[in-house]
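Reading group handout, session on sequence-to-structure problems. Before we discuss, look at one worked example. The prompt was deliberately terse, the way you'd type it at a terminal:

> structure Iron complex transport system ATP-binding protein

The input record follows.
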Amino acid sequence: MIRLYTDALNVGYDGHLIVKNLSIEIPDKQITTIIGPNGCGKSTLLKAITRIISHDSGAVVLDGKNISKENTKWLAKKMAILPQTPESAGGLTVGELVSYGRFPYQKGFGRLTKKDVEVIDWALEVTGISDFKYRPVDELSGGQRQRVWIAMALAQETEMIFLDEPTTYLDMAHQLEVLELLQKLNQEQERTIIMVLHDLNQAARFADYMIALKEGNIVKAGNCEEVITHRVLKSVFQIDAEIGRDPRTNKPMCITYNLLKGEHKNEETLDPSRTVVHAVH
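And the output record:
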């Protein structure tokens, strides 16, 4: 089922087009990961879909409605986004920042209801930061602050959550905790998760659907088997990758790679056998 899609979307800055004539469908109730080199338009795409920035032409359609014509509260009940570099939360405690996720549901003077408090406490608990509720956000480490922002997105209780590199600043264990939490939200609550990830193997491990971008265009979109291939990674990242199997998930993974140089960058004929090699043990 497709509830969210873009139609010939063009997005740019200062006359420079970043996302180019992009038409893409986001599978509902699945995890979609977006991969691509720096500057290819990943973050721009997320911001345009969630209306943080406007688009030059085309449309973003959710539940049959052009989101550019809908009011902010309607959209905020449908989508939450964790940007790559969240704004400063100077002077706020953890609990206060997470409470901002309840904005779409507040009326009148914006006082928190019993339901609001319950949702805030739940978001703090599932992200492992309940003990920090009354601490200033500025006093936390980078990894702890990242979990606070994720808790705020969860407190928004949207059907769709967009995250731009949510594992930034986190060590390996906390990266896995965050990604497993998002997977749990997807599986148990049927949240649609769309996230940008730099780590190709994490992107493949947790994704139902993947989108590979380069220079504002889609190189390949599909399941992990279709995207994590020698050919696609060569085209997107200019690397000569060896693709194997994750022994725990059986999903494709990039074992190792070399940078492509000279004429090899532009070769079009590739040996299909390079797509699947021996599994990692």
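Points for discussion. First: The radius of gyration is 20 Å. Second: Confidence is low (pLDDT under 50) at residues 268-281.
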